[in-house]
Design a protein that fits this description.
Largest sheet: none
Distance between the termini: 13 Å
Helix content: over 70%
Radius of gyration: 20 Å
Structural class: mainly alpha
Number of domains: 1
Number of helices: 7
Length: 167
Amino acid sequence: MFQDLLAQLHSLVSDLEPWQQVLALVPVGAIPFIESYLGSFLGSALGIHPLLAIPAAVLGNLLATFGAIALSGRAREAVTRGRDRRATDATAQPSRFRQKIATALDRYGVPGVCLLGPFVVASQITAPTLVALGATRTRVYLWMGISIIGWGIVFGVFGSLFLTVIL
């Protein structure tokens, strides 16, 4: 049954022009939890050439994630600017939840969270959370970009191999 579904989707996709295939995969890559890795896998597994499927899914994921980083960075700046204007109590302790997240961020760093985060939480959620916790936007952009591209390539190649096995 699953093979029949994939075969039907494969025949549908193969009838599309390459630009239509790419145009369909860019928004798929922007969907949280599908992202570049599942988008490139699906595209390759459905018969879209990996040299088209991978960049299209990666582009969609990069656009969505980098947009979220930019928005969260601006929000964080506005919040911290508001805190600086108010008199704050120097003895105030951060919450236990915030301490746990800060500890995990300290332990694994931005690279570790970015590279492993997509398997736990969508990159469109992980990236702005890192910025909200105080990670520099530049590092989050860099490592999330590396993660999105890397996982997109790995899963796109896997999807292509999967297609050759089932068909």
